[in-house]
């Protein structure tokens, strides 16, 4: 039986969505973030990197969202997550782009917001100046460029999903977490087609089942 | 003809290595970083994200290292970059892990080193304290965990390349840039098997040809 080692409020929610969408039997083993927001040590017993998502499937232990999604689709997908031929390259691109380019920028936006709040109070004013300036000069323009790019792609495809078809493919499973993060943490950058895409995913029965099984997940609210 | 839009000192050096290794004909169009270390605006004319690597191949314009490497191997690889059956999952994992997990940490190490050097001199002492503390508490333990994980994998495979075979596969092309970065910027974290792997890649005739064609590339020194 495939087991999803699922951390609350994390990228592994998209693995649950994929499994529900493809109607693949699985078990969930749940892990809760500590008060420091980090994954608990027990995850290190599953995989040495100690992060989520990670799955076990018989002898296989596999981490890294993109790898897990591709593994599940290839082994259990039965063609249900195959992109249309014309969207194969878009699917390949967005499958890598979600974690290779977009997520690191969004994680840094979060880190750069949190750090000034956590330094000793007497250096907080200087910290605010430094991190505010880096955000403005480096991060915000980067989020803007990337959001406009994603928005333009969705506007151009004129289809429901990233690869241009009528069903989600690996690109959609990968893109869910970063687009939810933009909706929550940088809503000014969420274009109308991005918003429609997130709403469309959230309305799917499979997504709702995954949410119920995964438990607390702030990004879908 | 496949064209690599190649930025000096960038992740696109690994695309040149791949093309030389597979003996695929290609052209290079070179771009130089500005004094701000960023990619020049001309790259935005090739792809809206304005980054490198990006390739054009007839009607296809494709960015994102992982996507480019998979595209080239599938279209032109003729089986030469196929992983052994037993290493297929390792290949899948490291192909995503290189940019999805390892690179963002290494980029942040660089960013967190550069920022304190660029703030006005009168807040530099406070900046050094803040960024030094974040590096020590957050980044360094993360680099250590990941380096040990990569080292353990290479020690375990007892083979020349990441997927356990005698020739490079997509995992190796993806892992080259982050492992070169650890060798240069965090040499204390470079384990003996990681060092042997980097040296082995750098000794390959195809890598040397790629280096000659790509021009200035600090990470290979």
From TrEMBL, chains A, B:
Residues 1-80 form the GST N-terminal domain. InterPro entries: Glutathione-S-Trfase_C-like (IPR010987), Glutathione-S-Trfase_C_sf (IPR036282), Glutathione_S-Trfase (IPR040079), Glutathione_S-Trfase_N (IPR004045), GST_C (IPR004046), Thioredoxin-like_sf (IPR036249). GO terms for molecular function: glutathione peroxidase activity; glutathione transferase activity. It comes from the Eukaryota. GO terms for cellular component: cytoplasm. Residues 100-221 form the GST C-terminal domain. Keywords: Transferase. Pfam families: GST_C, GST_N. Its EC number is 2.5.1.18. It catalyses: RX + glutathione = an S-substituted glutathione + a halide anion + H(+). Belongs to the GST superfamily. This is glutathione transferase. It comes from Rickenella mellea. The lineage of its organism: Eukaryota, Fungi, Dikarya, Basidiomycota, Agaricomycotina.
């Amino acid at each position: 039986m495939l087991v999803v080692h699922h951390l609350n409020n994390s990228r592994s929610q998209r693995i649950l969505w994929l499994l529900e969408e493809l109607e693949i039997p699985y078990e969930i083993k749940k892990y809760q973030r500590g008060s420091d927001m980090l994954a608990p040590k027990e995850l290190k017993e599953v995989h040495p990197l100690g992060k989520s998502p990670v799955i076990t499937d018989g002898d296989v232990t596999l981490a890294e969202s993109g790898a897990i999604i591709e593994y599940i689709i290839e082994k259990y997908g039965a063609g249900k997550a195959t992109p249309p031929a014309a969207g194969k390259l878009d699917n390949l691109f967005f499958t890598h782009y979600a974690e290779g380019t977009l997520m690191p920028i969004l994680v840094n936006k979060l880190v750069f917001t949190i750090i000034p709040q956590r330094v000793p109070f007497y250096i907080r004013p200087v910290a605010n100046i430094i991190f505010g300036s880096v955000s403005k000069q480096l991060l915000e323009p980067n989020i803007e460029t990337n959001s406009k790019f994603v928005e333009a792609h969705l506007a151009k495809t004129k289809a429901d999903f990233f690869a241009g078809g009528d069903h989600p493919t690996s690109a959609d499973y990968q893109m869910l977490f970063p687009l939810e993060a933009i909706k929550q943490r940088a809503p000014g950058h969420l274009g109308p087609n991005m918003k429609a895409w997130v709403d469309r995913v959230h309305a799917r029965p499979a997504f709702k089942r995954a949410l119920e099984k995964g438990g607390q997940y702030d990004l879908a609210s």
